[in-house]
Amino acid sequence: MTNWELIKNGIFTENTIFRLAISLCPSIAVTNSVKNGFLMGVAVMFVQVMVNVTVSMMRNVIHPKIRIPVFMLIISGWVSVVDMTMAAFAREAYAQMGLYIQLIVAFASILARAELFASKNTFVPSMFDGIGMGIGFLVALVILSFFRELLGRGSVWGYALLDFKPLLIMIMPTGGFFAVGILMAFFNWMEQRSKIASDKAAAHQHH
Amino acid sequence: MSRQNTDSMTGMDMFKIVANLMLIYIAGGLILASVYAKTSPIIFKKAKQEKENALKEMIEADSIKEMGEWYPYPRKHAEYYKATTDGKTVGYIIETFGKGYSSYINILVSVNTDLVVQKINVLHHAETPGLGDEIEKDYFKDQFKGKTIETLKVVKDGDLTYVQAISGATISSRAVTEAGVRPAVQMLSDILSGKIKAETGKHGEEGH
């Protein structure tokens, strides 16, 4: 895969939330406003890239028997770096989502990429895989939080847009599940449609 | 991995494992230590500044000094302050906690010298968005002005002598009013009347 294909893979083919359906708990918890969703996405992207890069550089010296504990140590180290940096420079956001930043350590998506990709690939592809997965996660969180904040608060990034009685349920966890479900269905439908279209085109050529 | 594989652990394997972990701990420790050294003074300074600003917003006074500390809940440390202007006491600020629906709600209360509530502010909480988090809104907080120990009670009947519950968030309303603010004012009243002794524990003198 080329670097560009690796990035596309992370955004579309293996999108953490809409295709792989992992790390859903934090995505539901922080996506009740676009700002939080965006910051969480950036934090996760940073951790994913740094973890992939570190693991790929160390992959030949890590003993296979203890690779998972070593990956966890690498992940928690980088998460702590993000945690302290946010506490110092983005205090307002940190007050609201500090807990979830620390929880990045337990994200299935990050360990999965370290184990499935970075431990078998060199520095550059691992970096692009991290960027792709990170952007995919970021985009998913922003889409989710855009709909949830718009419907649940009538605003986007804190700016009031719609003047109506908001659908409170959308900014509560329940609404998070609805939003993930509906968007996932939409992505699947899009994929099926394009598959049917390409099948038809292929069948056409045969005749 | 197969069973056979697990059993065949050589001395070299062990050495590699130990070396792996040592390398990771040392490198990670160094990175974390340098980030911590850079960020912790900033975090500390900003947190202190935020606290001072929060206190200043509570009451108009020349100086606000810590009077003592108390524990609204076991392990929930809070402080209270005396506000003075030209050397005369103009009021007090008490930090307190109230156990809400899904979090401990951290509150500041200011009272005048007659222990009548002047203002409250919600510093931190994790109540339900859209319901419990209405406790942050002015329409709820403004009700506390002029309340005393006797009238710090949550009602739903529209009697303005008392505090009106937020619809859909009675637990959070009660947490602020009856678990947070009222015990705080009660505590201050007990201390000022000498009923209980003020605790100016080690925490105050230690400094930072």
Folded structure, characterized:
The complex is a heterodimer of chains A (207) and B (208). Chain A has 207 residues and is mainly α. Chain A has one domain (3-206). Chain A contains 8 helices and 2 strands, in the order αααααααββα. Chain A has helices at residues 3-13, 24-30, 34-58, 67-89, 91-102, 108-116, 123-153, 173-206, and strands spanning 155-156, 159-160. In chain A, a hairpin with a 2-residue loop joins strand 1 (155-156) and strand 2 (159-160). In chain A, 40% of the residues are buried. The radius of gyration of chain B is 25 Å and the shape is elongated. Chain B folds into 2 domains: 1-58; 62-206, no CATH class. Chain B is built from 5 helices and 7 strands; from the N terminus they run H-H-E-E-E-E-E-H-E-E-H-H. In chain B, the strands form 2 sheets. In chain B, strands 1-2-3-4-5 form a 5-stranded antiparallel β-sheet. Chains A and B meet through helix 4 of A and helix 2 of B.
